[in-house]
Structures are given as structure tokens and as C-alpha cells.
Amino acid sequence: MGKTLKLGVILLLVCAVSAGVLSSVYSVTSKIIGARKAEEQARSMQIVLPQATDFNALSPEEVARFTADPKFAEIDAIYTGAANGQVLGIVARVRPAGYGGPITMLVGIGADMTVKGLQVMSHSETPGLGSEITNKSWQEQFIGKGASGPLAVNKDGGEITAISSATISSRAVVRGVNAARELARTSGILGGGSR
Amino acid sequence: MSSPSPLSSIFSNGIGKENPTLRLLLGMCPTIAVSLAVSNGIGMGLAATFVLVGSNLCVSLLRKATPNEIRIPVFIVVIATFVTVVDLVMNAYLPQLHQVLGVFVPLIVVNCIILARAEAFASKNGPLASIVDGLGMGAGFTFALVLLSAIREPLGTGIILAAPDLGFEGIRLFSKEYAAAIVTQPVGGFISLGLLIGAVNLLAERGKGRAGRRGSQSPQGGCH
Amino acid sequence: MKNLLVILFTQALVNNFMLSRILGACPFIGVSQQVETATGMSMAVVFVMTMASAISWLVQNLILNPLNMGYLQTVSFILVIAALVQFIEMFLKKNSPGLYKALGIYLPLITTNCAVLGVAIININEGYNLVEAAVSGAAAGLGWGLAIVLFAAIRERMRLAPIPKCMEGFPIALVTTGLLAMAFLGFSGFDVARFVGM
Questions:
Q1: Which of A59, B11, C9, C115 has the fewest CB atoms within 10 Å of its CB?
Q2: What's the confidence (pLDDT) of residue C165?
Q3: What's the confidence (pLDDT) of residue A1?
């Protein structure tokens, strides 16, 4: 019994040292990671809704109220963007399912229901094919569109040129943008209620 | 590891005849999963090397104080601690690499190379030799990863040496239209690693034929 | 219920642990000489992966998260898995000699199967609840098992094939795995959610 106890104490000691080392490393790195994430978030917000300067996140309860609607199930965070106290648009974080898994992206929609910008935060699409959704020049074709109705890729008769051999990835991005646009149109966040 | 060998031969062992990936055939999963770009290969290789050196050193220092019955759990805790340190530091300073390597960073814990070296080498040798062994094995793993990525990255994307964390776009060798994306899929990983090991075996056999005539013997790389 | 089906299909086929995520390659190639041993190994893996998924979920959500010590995830999960495998081995030996005889020799190999730790971490990253985590573990194990049994059947037939000497054993096994992975590529992009009617 004494032997087992001794072994247990040694193992416990090793674990305690390990936990001590890790907690001190964590206390240093967590600050850097947190600061970097906040900075990245702020920068992406600026990219997807350039005119706005102040961004406010909706509370998780408010977001949950919208995402209860299956149409918005892929949205997981909503922000309003304002400048000089006037709300200029919304930013939605959407996670549509792509070819290799969910694509996390930010979509900025202005008060006129057009797309102001989009930014792919993370994805697991095929390198060289679906991964082209992160290409800035491909994303640019979305900007300014959406005033007349939901977007679609050219294969489905829409105005967005799909990436060749990556229609599923392209459709996923379009679906994410449409969800954000639909949210902006019907949620009433941008004032004027449902239009 | 019966007789004490000079440090230089301990080091070169890891790169050459006991190369963990190409000769001992350990640690397949990260090798195939991560070798999509040379920068990933280097990142993963250096992370594993850091863990190998750190855990080899600790295991070697603790080898007299560790009772035999609980040595495996103690090794595992030591290795897991170093892996978590790498995970946290990489997340802080190389975020894009951390995201690409994903779950394979914490999975360095179960990379057979590391536990195997702790058990087979570090628990029987002094700290200096253990550090050198860790460096050698890590260099061998990194070498194999870089070799495989240097084949897959250009074939699959037409680009080589892309490193998003350093803001480097890579060198385009040929147009994307001619790149075979399948090479960057798991399919391409399995096949290219199989062919690479086959080629290494062929070279080793040729070398053995020559060495055999000189009367020295070469160890056999074994599947297990 | 439907989301469990989605998890089942996704983890077992679309993101097959061996052929798509590349986890658990060492035992996959090491224990696939015969269909019979491959079947034994895969049953042991399904068992351990389901248990490990559930228990690591509990450790994460009942111990690490409340204490705000998420950075101890890797250390605690690997210890939990090692202890779990040991415990299952002792339990089977005592209470179910038949099952122990069938699975016993494979159990010690499982601690270092990266698919087990992999599924535990992926469950947390995906934000699954306890039931979803257990289903995901079982599905991942089943998918891995399916791959290894198919692979063993191919290898049994390959034994008489003329193979260049330098490609014998490991290299040809990897190339074959690549071809099997190509077949499984057909599952990717398969919209499981729509398939089960969600």
C-alpha cells in the first residue's frame, strides 16, 4: 500500500509541475492571443463595412431569436456598424457548409441591402480549388450587388461567376451572403422594419 | 544503443539510417496530413523537434527518480506538457500556421516517434546524448516532411515556399491550370509517401549492395 | 435525432478518420494483414473511441471549463485515454473473458492511436453535447473500422501479386490506401443534411 501511495505521490507531483509550467506559459500567451484576435476582428469589420467606425455585437439572446428561423440557422454572430451615431449597416458572421466543412465568413450589408464587403475567416475547402474563395478579386464581384434580390451563381442563372471546378464552395459563399442580406432586410435592425 | 556512441553519430543516425519517417516508418499521420506546403512541413518539423528535445532532456534527467511502474504515464505527462507549450506559443506568434496544422499540433503527443525515443533512448542515456538524439530525430522528421512537401506543394498548387505567416506568397513555378489538386488531397499524400519510401528503399538496397562488398552491414528498416 | 444522423454519416463516411482526416495510420497499416485481426482491432477501436469521447467531454465540461483551465486539455485527455484503456483491459479480463480474448491484444495499441485523441479534441472543437460527442466517437470508430476491414481484404488478395522488391510491405500499402481514399473521395461534398431531410 505504501508503495502505491508513493507512486501516486510522484505522479501527482509531475502533474502539478506540468500544470504550473503550463499556467505560466498560458498567462503570457493568452494576452497575445486575445489582443491579436481582437485586432483581427476589428480589421475584418473595417474591411466588410468600410464606412462604419463603431461596431456593436448583438447579445447572444438577440442572435438566438433570429437564428431560431431555419433561414438564418447558419448565422452565428451579428454586429451593427455605425458612424457618428447613425447605423450604416450590419455585419453577420455566417458559417455555410462548403465542400470540406463550414466556411466561416463575415458579410457586411449596407442600409441599401447591397453587399459592402466579405471576408473569409476560416475554411477547409480543397487547396487550389475551393480555397480560391479567399481570393480578393473573386470576392470583389459581390460588392455593390444585392439591391434587386438574392444573389446566385451563374450556373443557377445568377450574376456571380462561380470558381471553376468549385461550384459547391462558390454556392456556399453565395448562400452565406444571401442569409446576411435577408437578415438585414427582414430583421428591422437597420430601421424601417420589414421591407 | 548498447555502446556509448559519439554525439555526431547519434545525430546523423536520426537523419539517415534511422530516419523516423523514411526508415523506421513512425509518425505517418502528421507526415501525410501536414505535408501540403513546405512551410507547414518546416513548422510541424520544428514543433516536433522542440518537443523531442525537451521531453528527451526531462526524461533523461528524471530517469533515476522515476519508478519503473509509472514511467509511461510520467513520460506522457512530460511530452504532453511540451506539446501544450508549443501549441500555445504557436497560436500566439504563428496564428496561420497554427490554424493550418489544426488538430495535428496537440496530436504530437501521440506521435510514436516521441514516446519511442523517450522509452528507447532518453530513459537509458545521459542528458547531453538525449538532447542530441532528440535533435537528430527531429531533424530527420523535418527532413522527411520537407522532402514530401517539396514534392506535393508544387505538383498540387504550382507554387512553392508559400508562407502566409511571413507574408510570403511563394514562387509560382507554373500556372494553376496545370496543377493537380488531387496531390494535395489525402489521396495524393498516401500515394506520394508510398512512392517516396519505395524510392528510399531502392536507394538503400543499392547502397547496401555496395556496402556489403566492403564488409560492413546496414540496418534493416522494418514495418511494425 | 436528425442531427445525430448527420454526425454519424459525416464522421463515418464524409470525413472518414483514416481516409480523409488521416488519423490512426500506424495501426491501420500495422494490423491490416488479415481481415480477422482487422475486424478485432476495429471493434476495440469503436469501443474505446465511444467511451473516450464521452469521458473526455465530461472532463472538458465539468472540470476544465469551470476552472478555466482549457490549456490543460491535451495533458488531461491523453491521461484519461491511457487510464481508460488500462481500465477497460482490467475490466474485460475480470468480467468478460470471451471479449477480452477477442479484443485484449489490441487494447494496449490503442493508446497511441491518434484517432482516439483526435476524436476527443474534434468533439470539443465542434461544440458537440454529450450525446453528440458519444455518437461522433462511435461513428468515427465505425468509419475507421470500415476502412481497415476493406483494406485488409485488399491486402489479402494482394499477397500473391508480383510487386517490385523496393515497394513491398509499407510502400505498396500506402499506395493502396491512396486508391481506397480516392474511392472515399466520392463521399465528400455529399450534402448529408439534405439527405436526411433537415
A1: A59
A2: 87
A3: 62
Give the pLDDT mean for B166-188.
82
Given a cut of 50, whether residue B218 has pLDDT beyond it is no
Confidence at residue C176, expressed as pLDDT on a 0 to 100 scale? 94
CA–CA gap between residue A90 and residue A181 (Å, rounded): 9
Which residues have CB under 8 Å from B66's CB, separation 6+?
A: A10, B59, B74, B123
Verify whether the Cβ–Cβ distance B83 to C74 is below 8 Å. Answer: yes
Residue B148 domain-assigned (yes or no): yes
- Contact: C188, A99; criterion CB under 8 Å: yes
pTM more than 0.90: no
Interface contact C72-A101, CB threshold 8 A: no
Residue A143 falls in which region: left (phi positive, over 0), alpha (psi -120 to 50) or beta? beta
Q: Across the interface, do A168 and C71 touch by the CB < 8 Å criterion?
A: no
Q: pLDDT digits over A116-145, tens only?
A: 988 888 887 776 678 788 888 888 888 888
Distance from CA of C115 to the nearest CA of A (A): 19
Total structural domains within chain B:
1
The reply to whether B111 falls in a domain is yes
C75 inside 8 A of chain A by CB? yes
Q: Is the ipTM above a cut-off of 0.90?
A: no
- Chain C nearest-CA distance from A158, in A, is 22
Cα distance from N-terminal residue to C-terminal residue, chain A: 76
- Residue of chain B with shortest Cα separation from A34: B92
* CA–CA dist C139, C145 (Å, integer): 10
User: Shortest CA distance to C67 belongs to which of A70, A23, B146, A6?
Assistant: A23
Assess A26–C contact: CB distance below 8 Å, yes or no: yes
Q: For chain B, how many residues are written?
A: 224
Question: How many angstroms away from the CA of C100 is the closest CA of chain B?
Answer: 23
Give dist(CA B176, CA B158) in Å, integer: 6
Query: Do B123 and B63 contact (CB within 8 A), yes or no?
Result: yes
Note the pLDDT of residue B71: 85
- Find the domain containing B206 and state its range: 6-211
Long-range contacts of C185-188 (CB under 8 A, 24+ apart): C185/B185, C185/B187, C185/C20, C187/C13, C187/C14, C187/C16, C188/A99, C188/A100, C188/C14, C188/C15, C188/C20
Residue ranges of chain C whose pLDDT lies below 50:
none
pLDDT at A191: 61
Q: Is the pLDDT reported for residue B186 higher than 60?
A: yes
Within a domain: residue B108? Answer: yes
Does the residue B24 lie in any domain?
yes
User: Is C10 near chain A, with CB under 8 Å?
Assistant: no
